[in-house]
Write a structure and sequence with these properties.
This protein is mainly alpha-helical. It contains three helices and no strands. The chain has helices spanning 3-27, 38-58, 64-78. The radius of gyration is 17 Å and the shape is elongated.
């Protein structure tokens, strides 16, 4: 597999992990019914948290992508 593709896959996994770790933080935020709330806001907030995860991962993340990439390379070498 292409090293660039491996890095992208590992980084994508890390961004999903980060987003899932951030999600509970945003679940506790209540919005005024006058200016927000409802199903549309929930959908938007979920997309926003996903984008935060991508941005954090792209900016260097938490080091998970590097570990995942090393393990993916090991798995390929053993085949």
């Amino acid at each position: 597999m292409d090293p660039k593709k491996l890095k992208e896959t590992a980084q994508e996994f890390e961004s999903v992990f980060i987003a899932e770790m951030l999600r509970p933080m945003f679940d506790g935020i209540k919005t005024s019914e006058m200016f927000g709330g409802g199903n549309s806001e929930k959908v938007y907030r979920d997309m926003q948290v996903d984008e935060y995860g991508k941005a954090i991962s792209k900016a260097g993340g938490i080091g998970l992508a590097d570990s995942i990439m090393r393990e993916m390379i090991k798995m390929q070498e053993s085949n």
